[in-house]
Amino acid sequence: MELKLGYLIPTRENIMSGDHSVAGLLERAKMVERLGFESLWVGDSLFARPRHDPLTMLAALGAVTGRVQIGSAVLLPALRNPVVLAQQLATIDQISGGRLIVGAGIAAGTPRIMDEFKAASVPFDKRVGRLVEGFALCRELWKGEPVNWSGRWEVNAAELAPLPVKPGGPPIWLAAGVPAGIRRCAEHYDGWMPIGPDVEGFRAGLVQLQKAADEFGRPLPTASIYLTVCVGENEQRADAQINEYMAEYCGMSPVVMRSIQACCGGSLSKVVAFIREFAEAGAEHIILRLVGNHETTLQQLSEQF
After folding, report:
1. Residues 6+ apart with CB under 8 A from 215
2. What pLDDT, on a 0 to 100 scale, did the predictor assign at position 2?
């Protein structure tokens, strides 16, 4: 299967630099599409890692592009009412002509993220159940039939419009690295989107995913990986740039972040080999978060894949 490469739109990075505008991000998206990349992605955070709203950005990306898939890497659905979310995602899917991928996660248990949930009046310890039930409700609403639902949310013979382009709704990919999350992905969702920490961990997770999918009698979800890379001929400097970036982006020790997120800094050939290693291990779709000069790196990578 041909490898698909995606690019994370730097909404967080722009905010970090003091740039709150959107026009440049949309121009970058159009450039990435022209270069032949397969997908565009946006992250999600309120206060922990401030950035542009992902759903609004996805709608804009869907409107200014015509070929690439658009997705969230990753959305925190537990922060949102699933009835409202179902309508928003269906609308984005229509705007994009059916190109939406809903990448989702439960969020890590860091103090800043827990404070974010508290500010949104969402119980952090209930986020897994809210994700699973919320997406189940979305999928019912995407069938185009009256829905009755009694659970965390109450729906009484309600029918949603618009419907997504694809019957049943856009694919849902789950960010998961622990065994329970991988099983949850295999049982319920269409794609798997881990963040690392390395190719050996990815291979082991993929084995777990296949085993669980077989157990549940479901097809293997699309295997993807979220990688952070920095291209620079001075390998030591490129690696240091990733550390500086991680500290500012996440507000945490880069040592801690690199122990859970797959990263590579170095020459173009080293970064390309790093990406190909994950493809050879079974990643069908690779999402790249870039550190350094984005335009130059995008051009370089487009010539390699």
Report:
1. 186
2. 83
Residue ranges in the chain whose pLDDT is less than 50: none
Cβ of 258: how many Cβ atoms within 10 Å?
A: 18
d(CA 300, CA 297): 5
Q: What is the dihedral of CA 12, 14, 18, 20, to 10 degrees?
A: -90
Of the CA atoms within 13 Å of residue 262, those in its CB half-sphere come to 24
Q: Count other C-beta atoms under 10 Å from residue 197's C-beta.
A: 16
Contacts of 40 by beta carbon, 8 Å cutoff, 6+ apart: 6, 7, 9, 29, 32, 33, 61, 65, 68, 69, 70, 71
Instruction: Tell me which H or E stretch contains 6.
Output: strand 4-8
Residue 152 backbone dihedrals phi, psi, to 5 degrees: -60, -30
Reported CATH class of domain 4-170: alpha beta
Amino acid residing at 14: N
CA distance 14 to 226: 20
Asked if residues 6 and 286 have their Cβ atoms less than 8 Å apart, the reply is yes
pTM above 0.85, yes or no: yes
Distance of CA 56 to the CA centre of its chain: 15
Q: Hunting for tokens 């972040």 — which residue is that?
A: 257
**What is the distance between the alpha carbons of residues 298 and 290, in angstroms, rounded to a whole number?**
9
| 35 SS3 class | coil
